[in-house]
Amino acid sequence: MPLIGLLAISGVFMTVKLGFFQFKYPLYIFQQTLGSVFKKPKGEGTVTPLQALTSALSSTIGAANIVGVPAAIMFGGPGAVFWMWVIAVIGMAIKFSESVLAVHYREENEEGEFVGGPMYYMTKGLNMKWLGVCFSFALMIELIPSIMVQGNSVAATVSQTFKIDELYTGIAMAVVTGLVVFGGIKRIGRVTEIFVPFMALIYVGGAFAVLMLNLDQVPAVISLIFSHAFQPMSAVGGFAGAAVAETIRWGFARGLYSNEAGLGTAPIAHAAAQTDHSVRQGFWSIIGIVIDTLIICSATAFVILSTGVWKQEGALDDPSALTTIAFEESFGAFGSLLVTVSLIFFVLSTIIVVVFYGSKQAEFLFNLKAAQGIKVVYLAAIILGSVGAAKTIWSFLDLALAAILLPNIIAVLLLSNKVKELKDEFFQSEKYYLKDVNKKKIS
């Protein structure tokens, strides 16, 4: 709760400080991001802005989108979906700020690649290298149990569905991950650019098909989401009921946990992007929240609520299975398979990118050789996790996340004037926003 409160207050503070820009310029932000994917990127960088976005999305689109959303609904009620949307829009200001700072304070490494992230803006922007070292070390270490947990979830799912031994799944995941991550950010960008849109479209397409089968339920679902955002939800079927405070808490937790606003991970991917101004790349991080939370998490929520699986007896016993049950009831064995395959691909893509994030911490703390060495440690963690070695340290994950999140939020708030200065520079300059708008008027 304290972390959720801190993130929510920070999000509101940055939204006000930046003049509610995410509400003022949604069309312009869309035009400068997804609306410009076929245009040649301006400025310098290692990967295209789209590749930076898909790399960041690989990390945020994961098990939380499929199994976390039903948990939020079961413990917070349908109203939690409304609060998930609210925190997503507020969180945009934090994620935008992180990415703007990451690009502004980035550096070129020995291999000519652009590198950046919280550890660089703490060192160069705040002149607090010790804080950057604390963040970097905490993230590098935290990713070991995190990767183990992710590896375990894939291995268990594959074992359950396809009856393949967990060890073999772990080795296969480690090999695939190694082939991608040892190629650096350029190879990761090329893989995620194809991989992420493909896997997201398949899952969202399946969810849309379920929704079409239950089209008559959509008005009732929307009514449930909005009405129970502000009033307690009494027990119904398998749902035990929830107070408004619980509804808000679960909605906020799901939104923040899913899109990683404030965690400082996505800026590491955005820092490598080719751009002419840090604010322009910041817009791409906003689109990341739109895709991850407002589209994919919402798709899961509508599937759970429209099919009514959340009200079935025993639903509270295993909320993480509800998405699979909803798809299975709609499409039979194929539906169950679609969710399983989506989960496997979502988690595998997460592992690939977090290994990259971890290697960038080792590079910052030590050197490029250490970055390659930690990749080997992470690949071993995938295999160990797949056979259940992480179960004793799962409980420490939240504590480790706090060690990453707190230094990053402190840095973003301390550098909020710099973010505002860069944002004002972009929107008031004839080189950027005014030039784009005038060009549109002429055409």
From TrEMBL:
> Quick check: keyword Ribonucleoprotein in the entry?
no
TM segment ranges: 6-30, 126-147, 167-185, 194-215, 221-245, 283-310, 330-357, 364-387, 393-415
Q: Known InterPro entries for this protein? A: Na/Ala_symport (IPR001463)
Q: How is this protein positioned relative to the membrane?
A: Multi-pass membrane protein
Keywords attached to this Swiss-Prot or TrEMBL record, sorted alphabetically, are: Cell membrane, Membrane, Symport, Transmembrane, Transmembrane helix, Transport
Give me the Gene Ontology terms describing cellular component: plasma membrane
At the top level, the lineage of the source is Bacteria
> Pfam families, from UniProt?
Na_Ala_symp
Localization per Swiss-Prot or TrEMBL? Cell membrane
Note the Gene3D superfamilies from the entry: Amino acid/polyamine transporter I
Q: What is its main location?
A: membrane
Presence of the UniProt keyword Nucleus in the record: no
Record-stated family:
Belongs to the alanine or glycine:cation symporter (AGCS) (TC 2.A.25) family.
Give the protein name, as stated in the record: Amino acid carrier protein
